Amino acid sequence: MSTQSSERERMTTSREPDISEGETPDLQALGDIPQGTGHTVQVENLHAYYGANHAIKNINLTFRANEVTAIIGPSGCGKSTMVRCINRMHEEIPYARAEGRVLLDDEDVYSPKVDVTAVRRAIGMVFQRPNPFPTMSIFDNVASGLRLAGVRGENMRERVHRSLRAVGLWGEVKNRLNSPGIGLSGGQQQRLCIARTIAVEPEVILMDEPCSALDPVATLKVEELIDELKARYTIVIVTHNMQQAARVANSTVFMLDGEVVEHAPTNDVFTNPRDERTERYVTGKFG
Amino acid sequence: MEAGSLSVAQQRLRGGPGARRRRAVNRVVEVLCTFAAFLAVAVLLLVVISVLIKGLPALNLDFFTKNPAPFGMTGGGIANSIVGSAILVLLATAMSVPVGIMVAIYTSEFAPTKVSEGIRFALDILNGVPTIVTGVFIFGLLVVGHQQSGWAGAIALAIVELPIVARSAQEVLDLVPRSLHEAGLALGLRRWRIVLRIVLPTALGGLITGAVLGVARVAGETAPLLFASSIFSNLGITTNPAQAMPNIPVTIFTLSESPSPQDHAQAWAAALVLIAFVLILSVIARTFHERSRRRIRG
Q1: Which of A65, A132, B2, B117 has a 20 to 30 A CA-CA distance from A252?
Q2: ipTM over 0.95
Q3: A5 and B179: CB-CB below 8 Å?
């Protein structure tokens, strides 16, 4: 990306700060939560490779339903790679492959009977940089995944509107649903991408450093949203920012060199880590 | 002043020994490069200006609307060649643009890296094949045993146009950010759908640029048409591609071979029409290119 566009992003953000709107995410818009519908993700003996490079080494983890799990660790430790193995995005990179099992409830997403596009609809993903489709309007961005599922007409409009309400963007965009998605500020774009993801009704949402390209105010808004979203979804968030992990996550995983060092309730990881390496990382001694 | 009397800072900032020579070399290189740049522009200007000077006198409304005068008569125009060229280029473009864009989609979106590189290299070679060779090839394939035809000419032009369209489309598709593919994949969209709904709309401006440049290039191609579409049964307008079709490049060639000064003037005028067409297309291509760049950068 050019510096020009980030420059413009900053300018738009300062002109229309996200904080000016008092709108809060309205998850009720998505309807009542059915009882006992949380979904667990279990990673078993996961290995991932980039060509000959062994990036993920035998990871075993459980992501509990309706909780936020944060993945922390220094750059290059395999956080993103591990998360991208969960919805099979890792294999889209040339020469990349994964081994092991990733269970959504009791079904292995790597089973040969499984359709990879169905996996990605069930396990949505939000990326580091907001990436709305540049040729599409705000409405069409949210509708883009729905059209594939054959949702049409009034039903689709309804789902788009509910998703925008759920991410707290409705009031800000309801009068300009047909203007381009890339005309929004950075923080709004990221919430638009989250709306696009939840519109297809996933069970799990993976977030790969979703706030690292956002200013502090927009970050706060997305964090509030994550806190709301966990009532409905299982959330895994990769973050560079330990304060963010402390603010949003029920449990935290510390990774180092492609391995899991520690997985514990967030509070324990930051105040009472079992492993010395975790302690050194969370106290800022390396990383 | 002697070196010994300079302060440390003076010695340092004046660049020490050899500084003067390095500055001189720098200056010479700069002048040579500037000269080369102006030379390139000057050549274009000279061509355009000489065609303008020699072509304008014979240019009038009749030149566009009338067919060539019968042998021995004066006046007349190149209406038949304009119509013929338009049909030939249109047919060639209708063949090469869809195929070219599909080739580019295959290499940029689906093919393994090695295969993709191989195809790119093959297209570069195809682009380098002298067009007279393409002409001979089509002559042997479609004209020998049959007759010259608009179809043969259009197919020859399509072969010339294909690598231009495909290569430029590849460049544009490669510019579409990876993050948009990923966004589509993460929504569970299938590849062809990502191409159709996300990649192609994003790259549209650049694809049009490539197609327009391809048109501009083949509009002036002469060699393949000399083999495929240069012997005309009549001087009227032909719209049936099953017959040889008069066209601007061959007309320029034929008129300039004639002994009559009036034909020479008409050759210049036809050249002017052709060059104006190409210039206009280039400006259009540039406009779309700008549009596309803005869109891709978001």
Answers
A1: A132
A2: no
A3: no
